[in-house]
Amino acid sequence: MQGGLPVFVLVGRPNVGKSTLFNRLTGTRDALVADFPGLTRDRQYGFGIFADRRFVVVDTGGLMPESADPLAALAEDQAQVALEDADQIFFLTDVHSGRHGSDAEIAKLLRKTGKPIHLLVNKAEGLNKSEAAGDFYALGLGEPRAISAQHGDGVAALMNSLLEHLPPNLEPSLDDNEVRVCVVGRPNVGKSTLVNRLIGEERVVAADQPGTTRDAIRVPFEYEGRPFVLIDTAGVRRRGKIEEAIEKFSVIKTLQAVEQAHVVIVVVDAQHDIGEQDARLMGLVAERGRAMVLAVNKWDHLKGDQREQVRYQVTLKMPYLDYVPTHYIAAKHGSGLGELMIDVQRAFEGAVIEMPTPELTRILERSVEAHSPPAVLGRRIKLRYAHQAGRNPPKILIHGNQTEKLPVAYRRYLINEFRAAFKLKGVPLQVSFKTGDNPFKDKKNQLTPRQIKKKQRTVDRWR
């Protein structure tokens, strides 16, 4: 773990429910789920949160040790990569299919890692513990835990027992002047070249082949008198070691580096398509709430029509990240880096901004006056006041009535109004809503003496 988020890796045979558990732990539907084996071939990564504790979850492809299928061998290679970075291993089995010969082979493989292993007997809803676990003690991995990834049975107890023994998450300090910047991207897009250019020395080894990356490293430097720390996901290597076998790109190290940063620079290669992996990586950064700047590198190698095509790709594949400033740079020659660093500093200032309650409420009132929320069943939605609920990312909490019925489009409208008012750039502003209780709910209306007399006269009249 080493200062980063704990990493939980899910392994097991195909179709035992790994992707379902991944989706439950991360609160997403990112992992494909279907009732046939072998659907997940590559690793899936996500941020999870439970009881205010954060972690990284990795869903691996189903392991089939006895299969001759080349895709099965590829899935096993992918799982091996994930296991190297695991802090805890969740070994899933299926109570309905029982203990399988492949389960014993997987257990043998996992024991060699020396990592903590948790044997989970999945799909055990409606079964008592002894019914579900009995057949799996033979795997020799300690006491099996009966869970239901689909319904959540036993999952909360599992996470409570694990997280209470792990150190607390550490947030990057918001009150010092040091800006932590993380540089991420696919292999060979120029991350290390960018870092070297910014700090003005060959501090981080750069090479022309992908995979000369290892652990995230911290590189302190000053830019225009301000202290920065660059967290580079390309590790320091001796130059003699670069010619060794190409190493695998570690998404886990990237996610842990994102956790430590105030601002993330996502680097993509202008000479290659802006792909799904780039969009997915940016989505993970946004999901974690980090400020972000996109750097499209190797721009100097493109001609006019090629540049227009790249701009179109950025707009097409990342429309949901329209708040992220995009810079077209040549890290090798330093062009565009000045403007890039200006937006990095703006993004940091936006991430840690203090937003006074009176000002937030004035912006809210002005926005509602210009464009009031729609009525629901004849009742008008009232938004009363707003206050700041957090920083990095900035969070705004709006109080009112019937706020749960606000349309998504109106919520987006308010986010854009706050973003424009505070000139936030590169920051994933979070706005949430809270409906206050009616102070007169369950209270009887107290009549005045005059009203009591009038009521009595009415009663007497109808007797």
Automatic annotation (TrEMBL):
Keyword Repeat attributed: yes
MF-aspect GO terms: GTP binding; ribosome binding
Region (Disordered): 438-463
Biological process per Gene Ontology, one example term: ribosome biogenesis
Keywords: GTP-binding, Nucleotide-binding, Repeat, Ribosome biogenesis
Family membership noted in the UniProt record: Belongs to the TRAFAC class TrmE-Era-EngA-EngB-Septin-like GTPase superfamily. EngA (Der) GTPase family.
Stated name of the protein: GTPase Der
Name of the gene encoding the protein in the UniProt record: der
